[in-house]
Amino acid sequence: MDDNKYELFFLSDLRKKSRYSKRYERDFQLVLDYIFTRIDSIAENSTSQFNKFIQILRRFIPKFLLVTILNRLRYDSIVGIKKDDDGKHVYCMISFQKHPARSMIGMFDIYVNPKDRGRHLKKFNAMAEMIDTLCKRYRKNGYVYLQCGNNDTTRSILRIFKKMCKRQYPDIGVDVELSRILLV
From the CA atom positions of the chain, what is the Rg in Å? Predict the structure, then answer.
């Protein structure tokens, strides 16, 4: 059995909680450091089409303003934090943008920490729990589906995810052909 402790947070909620609690302030700082590590890796990647743009943004946007700016643009993410013998670290993050006029949420990045990939991607448990949490929250607000990337890799992941949802999360529908996760 796994002795690790897992917690899920929406980044916007974690930002609010961090104003009032030292515990959440440390978690929020951990997530910010993680985000900026990811941003730096993209900026340093010479094959990335976004590296120049990100380098410029990185120079002008301080850490503490990044989440505020992203929230104003309707971006948010759900972050999984894992506590183990080595301390706390981010094990998984799903980033998305809300489109209320179209009743949909566009997912633009799913990232699982390389140390946790074998265990979590194989069974899709961490990702499924995060998507279930995301669905429950936004279903109440009138959102109808999550739009995923439309490529072969995404569709094969969605096929596996659909099989898993039938067993563990029967109220989550998956449309593989349209690359959508249905919230209703």
Answer: 17
